[in-house]
Amino acid sequence: MNGCPMCNKWEVEPDLRIAELPHCYVLLNRDQFFPGYCFVFTKDHVTELFHLEQEVRTAVMEEVTSVAAALYRLFQPAKINYELLGNMVPHMHWHLIPRFATDSLWPRPIWAEPHAEVHLTPADYAERIAKIRENLKL
């Protein structure tokens, strides 16, 4: 869809690509203040879960779950946060965020207060992405 930042995110940020799944794309968030923070977003431009046929909706949720499990295996967080809002970007996408009791915003939501972004080197992004891929068990 024209003007939707999620519709072209896969093409615009190839250095952050983790996996192309049957129904979703998985990208590492450039800001790694929360290590392992990823986006899982539908290939098709939809805004609501109920816009998907039941079979596709089930498959999408399995994909989201498999990414969350991979993040959990790799990072061993206290909790995985799942954010599916869409108010600012109306394209179905999840923010999957490993959370640790030691992070400065624990236990509050990640948007509770601003934080300085953490950007990695290209090599560190590539290494993190490779480790997440390994844990996805594709």
TrEMBL record:
Residues 5-106 form the HIT domain. InterPro entries: Histidine_triad_HIT, HIT-like, HIT-like_sf, HIT_Hint. Pfam families: HIT (PF01230). Coiled coil: none annotated. It comes from the Bacteria. A motif (Histidine triad motif) lies at residues 91-95. This is HIT family protein.
